[in-house]
Amino acid sequence: MLNVDAIDLHYGAAQALRGVSLTAEVGQVTAVLGRNGVGKTSLMRAIVGQQPVSKGAVRLAGEDISRLAPYDRARRGIAFVPQGREIFPLLTVKENLETGFAPLKRRDRHVPGEIYDLFPVLKDMLHRRGGDLSGGQQQQLAIGRALVTRPRLLVLDEPTEGIQPSIIKDIGRAISYLRSKGEMAIVLVEQYFEWARDLCDAYAVMDRGQVVEAGPRSGMVEAQVRRWLSV
Ligand SMILES: Nc1ncnc2c1ncn2[C@@H]1O[C@H](COP(=O)(O)OP(=O)(O)O)[C@@H](O)[C@H]1O
Ligand SMILES: [Mg+2]
């Protein structure tokens, strides 16, 4: 479904990605691991179109989408749960979910009930402001908002960052469920080795703007991967 092919990415003169490749298949979770500052978020921005690539290509189902704006990628089925969640604090939960409607045709503009099954708290708090939710509830809202578009590719950037263990479990269950449905490819950026390993089918480890290790989950050797994660 997703094919990132040898991309470079720059912020001005500073190079954040060097020849990075990554694939993600429908019905699978691809975990991207690595320390802070190695380029994980830059890679996700390149995939969703928030940051242009200076070399290489991003392909979705064979189509080169490297030059498309984020909106056009969203219309092709890419949904993004950004690091830090970026929900709207003054909008209600319902309104936050509805901001996900933008790339949808009018007839598709409804919130799938499944989102409330995955995250019942969103239904309970539908008319509360986003800013009144806890960090973990906001993360569930950010995932719900992404699912409103019924994506073919779901990109999650550190969804467990700063979140309490019980909600991390809920989010893990939701990702497993979405994976098992077999309708979307999932790219999951994570810093926690065990959580990522338990959820993923394939993995890539980044360091200093490059992929330094990648492959199927079966080839994920804990000690080897942890070398890249420890400070
Ligand atoms: N908007 C930006 N402008 C300039 N440099 C940036 C910007 N965003 C990230 N960087 C730099 O790019 C590198 C990779 O950052 P990032 O992709 O956020 O890494 P990670 O998500 O792995 O922590 C870091 O050196 C960071 O300082
Ligand atoms: Mg990041």
From TrEMBL:
- Kindly indicate whether the keyword Nucleotide-binding belongs to this entry: yes
Q: Which residues cross the membrane?
A: none
Q: SUPFAM superfamilies given for it?
A: P-loop containing nucleoside triphosphate hydrolases
Asked if the keyword Nucleotide-binding belongs to this entry, the reply reads yes
A Pfam family assignment:
ABC_tran
Q: Which residues form a coiled coil?
A: none
Q: Which GO terms describe its molecular function?
A: ATP binding
Q: Where is the ABC transporter domain?
A: 2-231
Keywords of the record: Amino-acid transport, ATP-binding, Nucleotide-binding, Transport
Sorted alphabetically, which PANTHER family does this protein's record hold? HIGH-AFFINITY BRANCHED-CHAIN AMINO ACID TRANSPORT ATP-BINDING PROTEIN (PTHR43820:SF5), HIGH-AFFINITY BRANCHED-CHAIN AMINO ACID TRANSPORT ATP-BINDING PROTEIN LIVF (PTHR43820)
| Family designation | Belongs to the ABC transporter superfamily.
Designated name of the protein: High-affinity branched-chain amino acid transport ATP-binding protein LivF
- The species is Methylobacterium isbiliense
Q: Which gene encodes it?
A: livF_20
